Amino acid sequence: MRELFGEAWERLFDPPIAHRGLWAAKGPPENSLGAFQAACTSGYGIELDVQLTSDGEAVVFHDSKLTRMTGVEGRVADHTVADLGKLHLAGTDETIPTLAEALTLVGHKAMVHIEIKIPYGEVGPLERRVHEILIDHSGPTSVIGFNPYSHAWFAEHHPTVLRGLNSYSYVGGDARHLAPELRKQYADLRHVAIAKPHFLALGLDMLPSAKADTFRKRGMPIIAWTVGEPREWDAVRDHCDNLIFEGFAA
Questions:
Q1: Are 249 and 227 a contacting pair, CB within 8 Å?
Q2: What mean pLDDT is reported for the chain?
Q3: SS3 of 67, please?
């Protein structure tokens, strides 16, 4: 893997990865250029989320709806990149960046984990746009996400892109979008066979686990998310290779 991915593989293990950048309630908001700059300055890796605009651009934003972070009604997918670029994040001067803008800011200063935010079964347009942007970026990156078919798309079309499959226990309201049988398959990590990832990014609700330990022993690194305090990391660190964190200095 080191021969194939070089610097990206090395940075997969260290340093820790700032969830949506190094944001803070009294600092730069999540998924903002300010949060990414803060992560670079502090020497952390970066996790960020990307979605597709109505005119086909990849922008950095987590929620499908704009309300929580901008106070504006509507969905990201229903707006153009120009319209979204005028919206301010959490009452600050920060606006919604494009993926290209974020990667230009980061350059080689940090490893960037790009989470593909797409509805299950809708694969292709966002992945293509992300790859087009990655062609022009020479810094270390990976693509991550929960949809195994998104990873399968990259495995088929661009196998040299480093891929990390996200998963969790699929219990509770957040998992309602999946049929019960799929929830069980994903919680048991049976969808790894579809995704063909190079590493796993697993929620704390499924760590530690014998299944994760088995994959790790086979050479597939495990990244824990989202770690909110040191004691949570202490409880799983012997079973993991790195962490995605927020709310403390990892």
A1: no
A2: 96
A3: helix
CA atoms within 13 A on the CB side of 147: 18
Per-residue pLDDT at 187: 93
List of residues 6+ apart from 173 with CB closer than 8 A: none
Domains (range + CATH), the chain = 2-245 (3.20.20.190)
Q: What is the pLDDT of residues 52-77, one digit of tens each?
A: 999 999 999 999 999 999 999 999 99
pLDDT confidence of residue 78: 96
Alpha-carbon distances, residue 132 vs 52, 128, 141, 170, 184 (angstroms): 13, 6, 13, 32, 34
CA 148, CA 201: separation in Å to the nearest integer?
13
Q: Of 120, 121, 221, 125, nearest to 174 (Cα)?
A: 120
99: which residues sit within 8 A by CB, 6+ positions away?
48, 50, 58, 59, 60, 114, 130, 133
